[in-house]
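Record type: monomer structure entry
Structure origin: computed from sequence
Chain ID: A
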Amino acid sequence: MVKPIIRDTFFLSLKSETATKEDRNVMTDLVDTLKANADICAGLAANMIGVNKRIIAINTEVLIIVMNNPVIIKKKGPYETEEECLSLDGSRKTTRYKEIEVEYDDHYFNKKKEKFSGWIAEIIQHEIDHCDGILI
């Protein structure tokens, strides 16, 4: 189900709780909402649709990746950039990394570890910041 985008900065600044198998409906809603906003958005975190769980969805333009409980375990190549967010007005400067390695649980809660670079890595970092209650 497509959900409205949350703009409450107090709620968005809360650290997200661990996702479990019981959160499958949240994953579905997150993907549906990401698809509905595909023209203006490349990633969403569950708190952006009002659910305080550590779940993100990334649209790679080839497929949508859902990550439960994502954690960046390696990063290299810092750079400064400016980002926008559906939940906030305007753009903000932030530091991102060109290459990251992420541990996460997939849709079936199988453990995964993957490396990402470039634009996809930037989107993942932005959404993990949401899970950590960090607003840019």
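Annotation 1: The radius of gyration is 14 Å.
Annotation 2: The domain at 9-131 is CATH 3.90.45.10 (Peptide Deformylase).
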